Amino acid sequence: MRADPEARLRSIAAEAYVVPTATDGRERPESDGTITWDSTGVIVVRLQAGGEEGLGFVHTSPAALAIVRELLCPVLAGMDARDTERIFWTMARAVRNAGWPGLCASAISVVDIAVHDLAARLAQVSLTQYLGGAHDTVPAYGSGGFTDYTDDELVEQLGAWAAHGLSAVKMKVGSHPEDDVRRVALAREAVGPRTELFVDANGAYARKQALDLAERFAESDVTWFEEPVSSDDREGLHLLRDRMPAPIRVAAGEYGYVPTDFRDLLVDGCVDVLQADATRCGITGFRAAAALAQAFGVPLSAHTAPALHASVGAAFDGVINVEYFHDHARIAGAFFDGVPALRGGDLVPDRSAPGHGLTLREADAAPYRVDAFTADLDDGGGKQ
Description:
Elements: E1 11-20, E2 30-31, E3 36-37, E4 39-49, E5 52-59, H1 64-76, H2 84-94, H3 103-123, H4 127-131, E6 138-144, H5 151-164, E7 168-172, H6 177-191, E8 196-200, H7 207-217, E9 222-226, H8 234-243, E10 249-252, H9 259-267, E11 273-276, H10 278-296, E12 300-302, H11 306-313, E13 319-325, H12 326-335, E14 336-337, E15 341-343, E16 346-348, E17 359-360, H13 362-365, E18 369-376, E19 382-383
Helix pairs in contact: 1-2, 1-3, 2-3, 3-10, 5-6, 9-10
């Protein structure tokens, strides 16, 4: 059966943005256990087909824009927007010599997200329903508590999320291990006994150091320990998962770029909760992670980008929560209309809107734009 020409990808517009970090209106660096950053990169892609426009966005370096332009646009020409699997794996093959994980994965993901949004819009259904429609809402947990925060800033941010009704909050640890037990106890006091407390080391600890701290974090009723060691150390994650004091769960997977990354974490028994990030693995990769997690009987958590993951997370039965990450929530509110509501601790995707329902407020985003291109995909992806 020939593809419907009305659904053929016609054009692409892509922009790169850099948004400075900010706390209470003040630009300042932020830190976790292994890195400090002073800005967040955003790539936005808009694809047109059949009179509709699909929008994708990811948080990554502006360098990914060149990969979209040079490696992906040529293979998108003539593709049917509804053939989401075909488009994803065609892009994956196109970056073979450049290396899929990392920047190429982000470039593939932003196009894959736009393709899925476009396909859902062409079908006139919400992205949540298009992907499976398992739930109407998905729980969110507040995420921030950066290691550079003062005690007052930590208490204020986490306490506000708890007061807003979020059932769990997460803080960063690892920059100053000697002070982490005190900071975690302070966070517990701020959020009260009914709010779950998560910690995220971003792989900053050594194995035995992580195990020692876990036992002490348990005294503050911590229930989630994310990347206690590097996700590259699958043997270490397995060891810690087996020895972690109950009820602390080991979570990892945010750096899953390709489906085999999720498979390996599960096969090696590394996690109690698998994480996946559609801005790094694409919606197609997220779907693969969801299927693998379900097959292994492990819950799935959506990492960051809550404006997107509200729609994606609600679509799959095994997704237990979405990370309401401070930086990404702030940027989404500044850049997009149609951001999913946060009600009673749950994110609520708009099932009445086709696709994910997000639209870019170009005038508001424009001051942060650092690069852009458009291309006509009818002529093989030639750039304008």
